[in-house]
Design brief:
heterotrimer; A alpha/beta (about 450); B mainly alpha (about 300); C mainly alpha (about 280); A: about 450 residues; alpha/beta; D-Maltodextrin-Binding Protein, domain 2; 2 domains; 5-stranded mixed sheet; 18 helices; B: about 300 residues; mainly alpha; MetI-like fold; 13 helices; signal (chain A)
Chain lengths: ~450, ~300, ~280
């Protein structure tokens, strides 16, 4: 017993010592500074983390402390932190959905890069999404729009040709023809995993093109409209007929894995997948991938998709200046060059800088480059839908309540996809729950 | 909670004197005071928030909300579903782990080659963290394309079932049972082993068959251990959420949303602290009702 | 075991025992194997049972995250929380077992019921308190929370163990002039060592695997292995190999610890509640 308790006493002492050591470690580092960076576990961010050793070499007084988390957990961590002003992080990786909303709450520090940073080199569509009242509140690390990927070999075998700008009806016909379930080749893969940033990103973009929208005049939810029904019916029936099993658990990453391992014929998703699918190290179909514009629905116009992952500095950070030094470094032209040198041009963060797209080496390494740039330029997040709308945002609605609404509607759409409800039931349930949330948030009387 | 409901007459031998009671209170107080602070302070804050408009991402909404958070929660059609799923999960896993645990305890009480190693293998899942076991089952075992179970079904000519989409609640229940069955085996095996040999031999001499032996000797002997298993597992099963978050995120629809996950979604996906607090208050009420029944049963069994 | 069985019956029982054991253990075994596959092998259909083992996934996991930092935090937190919980439970359980009052049962019930509400229900208040006391992202802060969540269970388990100690032994000690302190430390504790050890083991295991608070109250300095896993749960591209390697690393220490202490755990339990 005595041995036992003395063992424990030692451990507790060491716990306490470790605790105080951590505390004093932090205060001793005041002269220097330690930046805590919260980031998502995407490939580009992991490269940034590796290459940040270069930054620490050139900036010896700034130390970096990384917190890498899966997207959902990251979002819940940084939101709790910034909203309570806890100040655990100095740099946060957030989307263009959060930036204007958080800037409005004065949760973010303004960013004013030097002339050498060349702010005007950032693609205008991306830059305007990070601007609130003419001030910049985050810098883009990479940006994406939407496009259609398909397997050239399967299309050839079936005697099909993908048009440059297909329609949803055509996509369905193609998918029917190339599906070969006995060999586990599924004609179409789409996001089915519920979440406002997962299935609802794709669904919203598709619905816009079908002529639907989330809200009409006076914030009236419009989920029971004919356009929504047409779009969701297309989505559910295409995935049921030609989709992979387990579609409701497939998000971006799962579909990427499916396509890269040769299980998908067509996949409509974010443009960042291009860099991964064309990379033979990560994809078994690198030499067989073709691409086209995102499909068009009955309406054929409307905002498509614009997402960027950005680095922002919470107002609660105590190292705002040093944080800005890092943020500008990680989104600079020089950083792009560094990635190109270390990892090759195909791994360069996409969608942010004109200079990247002007670079002949990048154009050679990424055959889809010009295409992606166009998709981003035409994503039109502030544009109009079939009917006038009171909100902005391409594949999301730029109001704080959209996370709640998107999550809930996403679940209901997934229930329709899994066959638990019909499409009509799902949409009227979604209309009801959205109306409730909007009423609770006093948008509706 | 009324203390008198619990008094199943303390054992008379142990009844303390006045001075005894005083030092009893003194000895109890550190733990009790800490737990009081730990449970009362957040409880009061939760109660306070549950009557306020408080959304983390929309500070423009604030002020007193009256009962509206409760109203929105209780009239939400998903709420009843969540209650039903909570009960289903607790009862289902308890049945599987206690039923299976008893049978396995008897099985691993038998002498056979390599029994020690087999026992260690069986109890292993209990040591695995919930997130890991959920990830493991979702990706490596049950994935409809790459998963081992899909491969087994294909190799006998069946179409693989997408478990998490077709039977979400049953699959979550299965994963949770995989984690907790070993715990039941551990406890129940201990109890079976403590049954003295004389009792068994006496039963054998009386000519009791294996079924009769199981029913009349082993089961009654296990009742206390079973109560312990039910007690500890219920505590954890009521608050299960990591497994659901990782595998189904409560879906499809709300097919696998339990109360804990529903509150989680309110608090950390929708950032509606007011609504989540109202859910928390309701969960506390439910916890106390369950605890009342449970501890009564446990108390009866342990006094016996 | 005095029960005699035919040879056939014992073979049947033995194989049944092994089949069930292997079936239950299989997912962990498969995880271990997959950690040594390349990403392409890991998602091959049909799955490869025989493959060329590689350490690529492990190398990548170690490159992406400082495993030892997370593991050390987990050890500090679980050991610290368990130790303090036991320290507080011993007097409480003693008082409940030997000096019961009218409210003893009620107190016990209430303690256990604190454990039954979903922690997320009180996340925001706790988060704000941790922020204001500067305990966010500290080993001490998380250890305190883990200790408090386990306290009801340790008190209850110790209570059941102490009740098994025959009162006359304690009374004999009292006759010899032992005061309360000596009664506990000299008479009771040595008798209850197996029970205390198995309570501590259980508490260690529960702390090690606690995922909610550890994810929400830490960021980097005090992040334990549950946070380590959260960065591998679904990264871009193929990830089954890395996921398996990271999972194996997160689980292995407690699993091995569990295997070795399993006997101890059982011995303690025999002594108390489940006898």
């Amino acid at each position: 017993m005595f041995a036992f308790s003395s063992f424990c006493r030692k451990t507790v002492l060491s716990v306490l010592i470790a605790g105080t050591a951590l505390g004093s470690g932090l205060s001793a580092a005041q002269a220097d500074s330690t930046l805590t960076i919260a980031t998502v576990n995407n490939g580009d961010m992991i490269i940034m983390r590796q290459l940040s050793k270069e930054f620490e070499k050139t900036h010896p007084t700034i130390h970096l402390n990384w917190v890498t988390l899966e997207e959902n957990i990251l979002r819940q961590r940084v939101t709790t932190d910034v909203a309570t002003g806890a100040g655990q992080f100095d740099i946060m990786t957030i989307g263009n959905y959060e930036v204007p909303i958080w800037a409005k709450q004065k949760w973010l520090a303004e960013i004013a890069p030097t002339a050498a940073y060349d702010v005007n080199d950032i693609l205008p569509a991306v830059r305007s999404g990070l601007t609130y009242q003419d001030k910049l509140y985050a810098l883009p690390f990479y940006a994406e729009s939407v496009m259609t990927y398909y397997r050239k070999d399967l299309f050839e075998k079936a005697g099909l040709k993908m048009p440059e700008s297909p329609t949803y009806d055509q996509i369905r016909q193609f998918a029917d023809k190339i599906t070969d379930k006995s060999n586990q080749v599924y004609g179409i893969c789409l996001r089915g995993k519920p979440g406002w940033g997962e299935n609802m990103a794709f669904v919203t973009s598709m619905v816009n093109s079908f002529g639907g929208q989330w809200f009409g005049n006076g914030w009236k939810p419009m989920l029971d409209s004919a356009a929504w029904k047409a779009a969701i019916n297309w989505y559910v029936s295409a995935l049921k007929a030609d989709g992979p099993p387990g579609a409701t658990s497939n998000g971006f990453n799962e579909n990427l894995a499916l396509f890269a391992s040769g299980h998908c014929g067509i996949w409509i998703d974010s443009t960042v997948a291009g860099g991964l699918l064309f990379d033979p190290k990560q994809s078994q179909v690198a030499d067989k991938v073709g691409f086209a514009a995102s499909p068009k629905g009955a309406y054929g116009k409307g905002p498509t998709w614009l997402w960027s992952w950005n680095l922002a500095i919470p107002a609660s950070s105590k190292h705002t200046e040093d944080a800005q030094t890092f943020v500008t470094w990680a989104t600079s032209k020089e950083y792009v060059q560094l990635v190109a040198r270390e990892k090759g041009w195909v791994a360069v963060p996409a969608g942010t800088r004109q200079s990247t797209y002007d670079n002949p080496d990048y154009q050679k390494a990424a055959p889809f480059a010009a295409f992606v740039k166009n998709a981003i330029a035409n994503s039109d997040p502030n544009g109009q839908t079939a009917e006038p709308r009171p909100y902005t945002g391409a594949q999301f609605v730029s109001i704080p309540q959209f996370q709640a609404i998107g999550t809930q509607v996403g679940q209901t759409i997934a229930a329709a996809l899994s066959g638990q409800m019909t499409v009509d039931q799902a949409l009227s349930a979604s209309q009801a729950s959205t109306t409730r949330t909007m009423r609770q948030a006093s948008y509706l009387r | 909670m009324d203390a008198t409901t619990m008094t199943t007459a303390p054992p008379p031998v142990r009844a303390g004197s006045t001075s005894g009671r005083k030092s009893g209170i003194l000895l109890l107080s550190p733990a009790v005071v800490l737990l009081l602070v730990w449970s009362i302070v957040p409880l009061l804050l939760t109660l306070w928030y549950s009557f306020r408009n408080y959304n983390l991402v929309d500070p423009t909404m604030h002020g007193f909300a009256g009962f509206s958070n409760y109203w929105y929660l209780l009239t939400d059609p998903d709420f009843l579903e969540a209650l039903r799923n909570t009960a289903l999960l607790v009862v289902g896993v308890l049945v599987i782990s206690v039923g299976g645990g008893t049978l396995l305890a008897v099985l691993y009480d038998q002498e056979f080659f390599g029994r020690g190693i087999a026992r260690v293998l069986v109890i292993s899942p209990f040591f695995v963290m919930p997130t890991v076991s959920a990830l493991l089952w979702k990706n490596l075992m049950l994935h409809p394309i790459y998963g081992v179970y899909a491969w087994m079904m294909r190799s006998v000519g069946l179409t693989p079932i997408d478990w998490l989409q077709r039977f979400p609640m049953a699959t979550v229940m299965m994963i949770v049972a995989w984690e907790w069955l070993p715990f039941a085996v551990l406890i129940l095996l201990t109890a079976v082993q403590s049954l003295d040999t004389e009792q068994r031999e006496a039963a054998l001499l009386d000519g009791a068959g294996p079924v009769a032996r199981f029913r009349h000797i082993i089961l009654p002997h296990l009742s206390r251990a079973i109560t312990v298993v039910v007690m500890i597992e219920t505590i954890y099963l009521l608050t299960i959420f990591a497994e659901i978050m990782v595998t189904t995120a409560g879906g499809p629809g709300v097919a696998s949303t339990n109360l804990a996950y529903m509150i989680y979604a309110r608090a950390l996906l929708q950032f509606d602290v007011g609504g989540a607090s109202a859910g928390g208050v309701i969960a506390i009420v439910i916890a106390n009702i369950v605890a009342m029944f449970l501890v009564r049963a446990v108390a009866r069994n342990l006094e016996a | 075991m005095a029960v005699k069985r035919s040879r056939g019956a014992s073979i049947a029982i033995g194989s049944l025992g092994w089949i069930i054991a292997l079936w239950i253990f299989f997912p962990l075994f498969w995880m271990f194997l997959t950690g040594f596959k390349s990403e392409v092998d890991a998602i091959a259909t049909p799955p490869h049972l025989f493959f060329r083992p590689t350490l690529v996934s492990y190398a990548e996991v170690f490159e992406r995250a400082n495993y030892w930092h997370f593991a050390l935090n987990t050890v500090l937190i679980s050991v610290g929380a368990t130790f303090v919980a036991i320290l507080l439970s011993i007097p409480a359980a003693y008082a409940m077992a030997f000096l019961p009052g009218k409210r003893t049962k009620g107190t016990l019930l209430w303690m256990l019921s604190t454990r039954m509400l979903p922690p997320v229900g009180v996340l925001v208040p706790i988060y704000l308190i941790a922020r204001d006391t500067h305990l966010l992202d500290t080993v001490v802060g998380l250890a305190i929370v883990d200790m408090l969540t386990n306290l009801p269970i340790t008190v209850w388990m110790l209570y059941t163990f102490f009740r098994e100690v025959p009162l006359p032994i304690l009374e004999a000690g009292r006759m010899d002039g032992a005061n309360r302190w000596q009664e506990i430390t000299v008479v009771l504790l040595p008798l209850a060592v197996p029970g205390i050890a198995s309570t501590a083991l259980l508490s260690m295991i529960l702390c090690w695997n606690e995922a909610f608070w550890s994810l929400n109250l830490t960021s980097s300095q005090a992040a334990p292995l549950t946070a380590f896993i959260a960065s591998f749960s679904s990264p871009e591209g193929l990830f089954f190999g890395k996921l398996s390697a990271a999972s194996t690393l997160a689980v292995a220490p407690i699993l091995i610890f569990g295997w070795f202490s399993q006997k101890q755990l059982v011995r303690g339990l025999t002594f108390g509640a489940v006898k």
